[in-house]
Amino acid sequence: MLLFIFTEIMLFAGFISAHTIARAGAQAWPPPGQPRLPFRETLFNTAALLASGAILAVAQISHRKRPADSKGPFAVALVLGLLFVAAQGREWVALIGEGLTLTSSNYGGFFYLIVGAHALHALGALIALAWALGRLRRHNLGRNQFAAVATFWYFVVLVWPVIYWRVYL
Amino acid sequence: MTLRTRVTLLVAAALLLGPRALFACPMCFDPRAENRVAFATTAAVMTLLPLGMVGALALWLRRRARTLKEQGEDPNPDPPPTT
What we know:
The complex is a heterodimer of chains A (169) and B (83).
Chain A: H1 2-25, H2 39-65, H3 71-97, H4 106-137, H5 143-168
Helix pairs in contact in A: 1-4, 1-5, 2-3, 2-5, 3-4, 4-5
Chain B: H1 3-22, H2 33-70
């Protein structure tokens, strides 16, 4: 899992590097005629995602002592993660309506590429979390399984503030 | 000076002076400071990030092996016999 996360870190580092260079070379950013990204509204989504990561960490610590006690926080972390993805999806629909699309400009292309890649990772991690929660409810989730799924979620959570800082601000 | 030495010096001079004269790198000789800074920063990040991650992994593996050794466990256990 760690080796996979290392490769994904490099993937996002490459995306963000390309975005940084394109942005530095542009005459205006965002380009004229393109909407400004909703950085204030996305701050709430970011808070939900970070809370999800923190609560999952609490669930993981709890799982080591009494696995049955970790079900509640685990479910809350999963719900917060789903809320984040749903809110981002709603944001995308609004931005497409305002004229920001994958092909409208470099600005749009990079936004959907980077945030879209993150969304795909988030969806994959949420599927893994849902699977783990199912096993936890059947009292059949080992520590290593929990750790693997949680590590992937922590990666999704921790890479988001970097994306928010570089892409939204 | 032999012909070989002259050719070597000529090639070395061309390699050193040619790119500068031709402005071969559009980022290094970009008139805008923002572009040069962006290029240098991203190049540094893309170089140091994998080195940092691999280094951290190596350090963790070393500490893990040391911990296992202190606990009396063999960090490199032999595989079970096949027969």
